[in-house]
Amino acid sequence: xxxELIIVGIDPGTTFGISIVNIDGKIIFSESIRNAEIxxxxxxxxxxxxxxxxxxxxxxxxxxxxxxxxxxxxxxxYPKEDISIKTKTKIIExxxxxxxxxxxxxxxxxxxxxxxxYRYLATMLSNIDKNLIAxxxxxxxxxxxxxxxxxxxxxxxxxxxLIFSCENLILRPxxxxxxxxxxxxxxxxxxxxxxxxILEKDNESLREYTKTLENRIRELEKxxxxxxxxxxxxxxxxxxxxxxxxxxxxxxxxxxxLLYELKRKKEIVQKFEExxxxxxxxxxxxxxxxxPVILINNFKAEEIQExxxxxxxxxxxxxxxxxxYEPSLxxxxxxxxxxxxxVIINEIEKSELxxxxxxPLLNNLKINNGKFFSWIEKTEFETALSNxxxxxxxxxxxxxxxxxx
Length: 405
Prior knowledge:
The chain is an alpha/beta fold. A 6-stranded mixed beta sheet has the order 9-8-7-6-11-10. It has a 5-stranded mixed beta sheet with strand order 3-2-1-4-5. The model is unreliable at 168-172 (pLDDT under 50). It contains 13 helices and 11 strands. It has 4 domains: 5-125, Ribonuclease H-like superfamily/Ribonuclease H (Nucleotidyltransferase, domain 5), CATH 3.30.420.10; 135-189, no CATH class; 194-234; 289-404, no CATH class. Helix 11 (329-338) links the parallel strand 7 (319-324) and strand 8 (342-344).
């Protein structure tokens, strides 16, 4: 049974985002997996079909994308520039007819990559359907698409001939003429297929030349083997030297592997020690009746998510302090869901969006710095929070008086 052709969008990192789209543009799988091995990702993708494209939303292709694409023999799709948050939001809105909230940024980015790659193929797939409908052969749509996408056929004409050959079908002359005319039109419409034909003609000569080279290489290999046999017969010491050199190379390879493994273990230990220091610092802050504060450069959901994953923390236990603040509706919604204790910004005049989502906004507090975290005295924090609540209550009372008294 033929496996379904699929397009896979991947957002790699500590947490892998994976989304899979079939050649009809339907999302058939979407998930994020934390601390996954590449072999696990490849196995998960294989459960849904045969990938023809592995896609990323980044201009610079991550190394892991190359590894996964190579394991399937799939092409890689990537944008000319990194896909912006605005474009991602638009794509999600276009495909999300049920208006379901996608809070996981890794899933969002992998969906955007998969859909963008599908749209890259959409015109060609649409032309195939249009021409098959004209022939009244639309029932062969999936088989034709599969043969062309897997490069087993260069065009609709060739694909249908393969299908009819397998089914022992005979086309009437008029149907065959119509098929050839449609195929000609399809080739004229598809610039991509025209380029492929030109490349295939050029490659024919290369294949012949490659075949000649392969034959020559085989001859040289035979000559080499004959010379080696003569040397082995003439000089046993030479044979022993060859074996010795092989053993040395094998040991060199083993040493390199062990050095790599040692380096990897050291990195794990270093990461563990760092996490231990982070945990101890956080524990010390809490035990000394203080409120932990995290400093974040920009008011962006991606940066908050990175901090959350880096320190493996629950944001609701922290006050977030942003060095640079520019209002963002997406980030404000994200904050309202993860519920930090409070937010500190320098641009108080731009605080309207935070107030709209009932996110506690504090300022004029004494911030004390540690190695990984900053902190505020708990009594000072609770007083500031209490004053904020009183201020909000007084504003509500004043508005009530203005409206009804």
